[in-house]
Amino acid sequence: MPDFIDLPLEFLPLIFENIAKPQHLSACSLVNRAFNTFATPRLYERIFIFAWHKGAKLKVVLLFDTLTTSPHLARHVRKLDIRDFPKGLTLPIYRDLHDLCPRGLTNCVNLKSCTWTRDGSLNSAILEALLRCSQLEELEINGNDSPSYSTAILPQFSNLRKISLIMPSISVLDILPSWLSVTNETLRNLTLICKASSLITDTMLESIAPSLHHLEHFHITGCPKVTQRGILAVLSSNDHGLLSLGLEGLSQAFDMTSFSRECPHLGSLNRLRTITLTVQQTPLQPWMQGVVNLLSTSPLESFQVYSTAPFPGASLDDEFCNDIVTSHGARLTRFSVHRIYIGMSAVRDICSRCPQLEQLFIVADRTEYDELRECLALAPKLRSVHVHTNSVRGMLQSLEISDALSLVRQCPWSVTQIGINNRVFQVRRELRINDDDEEYIEPRLTPMENPDVPEPFLVVRT
Questions:
Q1: 90, 275, 342, 392: which could join 346 in a potential S-S bond, CB 3.0 to 4.6 Å?
Q2: d(CA 132, CA 157)
């Protein structure tokens, strides 16, 4: 009988694509020369270091030492995601890090995407090294330049397809119009993330709008000085229409009714596939009708709404959910509502009339679980389900597991992920034999194998 080692070599890349954990890929690379040839590029293709990783700061040092001393490995790096970094650098092991980082980055000759978000860790030398990465297309950075880097370097990144700025300072925002003016032919994705910052305003968005005519993805978060005026300026400059739009934590004065009335004339949402919105105003009825009108011409596939603050007793009514499903149900793969309630009749309608539905995120009371199980059984392609329950404070982990299992047993076999509150599980199914020698399938919940984020943070917007 042939051994696994005798598999045709062309199968190995397909196998390694399904290995999620870096330590497993590392083990594969040690099997033999053939395995090493295919596993090593996969292992180094995407490198990520997050603050919650054990020994994250030391890993940063070891990573850049490897990239500096082993250019044959650095050339495999396509995506670099650095979200933690040693600050202070007083220990001997950290002293050479600021020298190692630019040298290591220079060796990443095939780097396409770089994320560097730790406040105060990005400096001019690192940015200048990234400039030498000729294939770089995506840049996500902490926007606080002081005293780390010179903002004059930023406009030299002239061929980016994606720019993400986290907590941008006033000096970074001052240079943003000139930066975007040199990326206007290539830029397709712009994200601005703040935490209740007053620096980004309608006027600022109007100043950058002329450089965003090829934009396909626009997401803005935590900017309470931005109203529909600034967003309309961005949309009105767009030539072909957006594919995704995120409007989160904007001004309380944002008028959804006015916004939805102006957008159809622009035609900028006629290609929209994904939208994320926050509910920030009461009464909800005008806002809900505005959203329905806003999306009336969009071929929507992903719908996500969440509340920035609890509205006691507030809910998205059945008519609103019915209107969304009637207009978009044939295409919707994700329906996600966080921190605001929708009724079980709406959930049943979503599950029964969205034949492509793969992801469902809702708020529900534990007393509704029997009805929820019936609803979930109506969605044949469902893959991920997450339920946030408000009725039980300090719910025991054993109770969450029991609830998750009870839901999974009624779900279609396509479900591979289930979540209750801040617990997220991977669903596996095992073949078992009962006392009568009859075979049956029993679902089992296991920890997530996702290497990127810990279990509680897999719960988006909750």
A1: 342
A2: 10
Residue 461 confidence (pLDDT)? 44
What is the pLDDT, as a whole number, of residue 230? 97
Amino acid in the structure at residue 25: L
Query: To which residue do tokens 């200048």 refer?
Result: 128
**What's the CA gap between 55 and 65, in Å, rounded?**
16
CA neighbor of 132 nearest in space, from 162, 157, 160: 157
Q: How many CB atoms lie within 10 A of CB 438?
A: 8
Q: How far apart are CA 248 and CA 244, in angstroms?
A: 13
Q: Inter-axis angle of helices 369-376 and 344-353, to 10 degrees?
A: 10
Residue 14: what pLDDT?
Answer: 82
Give CA–CA dist 199/194, Å, rounded: 9
> Distance between CA atoms of 16 and 27, rounded to whole angstroms?
11
Query: CATH assignment of 300-462, given 3.30.70, 3.80.10, 3.30.310, 3.90.550?
Result: 3.80.10
Domain map (residue ranges) of the chain? 1-49, 300-462
Return the ∠ at Cα 323 (arms to 318 and 326), rounded to 5°. Answer: 120
Phi, psi (degrees; rounded to nearest 5) at 190: -130, 130
- The label of the residue with tokens 């933690």 reads 84
Q: Residue holding tokens 């392609």?
A: 381
Convert the pLDDT of each residue in 14-23 to its tens digit. 888 887 788 8
How do 423-433 and 439-446 pair as beta strands?
antiparallel
49, 77 in Cβ contact below 8 A? no
Which secondary structure element, helix H or strand E, spans residue 42, and what is its range? Answer: helix 33-45
What is the tens place of the pLDDT at every residue in 18-62?
877 888 888 888 888 888 888 888 999 999 998 888 888 889 999
**pLDDT above 80: residue 248:** yes
> Residue 339 region, left (φ>0) first, then alpha (ψ -120 to 50), else beta?
left
Contacts of 200 (CB under 8 A, 6+ apart): 168, 173, 192, 194, 220, 223, 225, 226
Spatial distance between the Cα atoms of 275 and 219, rounded to a whole number of angstroms: 9
**Residues 375, 1: Cα–Cα separation, whole Å:** 47
Q: How many CB atoms are located within 10 Å of the residue 204 CB?
A: 20
Is the preceding peptide bond at 147 cis, omega within 30 degrees of 0? Answer: yes
299-344 confidence digits (pLDDT tens): 999 999 998 766 556 789 999 999 999 999 999 999 999 888 899 9
Give the largest Cα separation in the chain, rounded: 75
pTM score of the predicted model = 0.90
Q: Quick check: 223 pLDDT over 70?
A: yes
Radius of gyration for the alpha carbons in the chain, expressed in angstroms and rounded: 24
CB 239 within 8 A of CB 269: no
Residue 403: which residues within 8 A CB-CB, separation 6 or more? 366, 369, 387, 389, 420
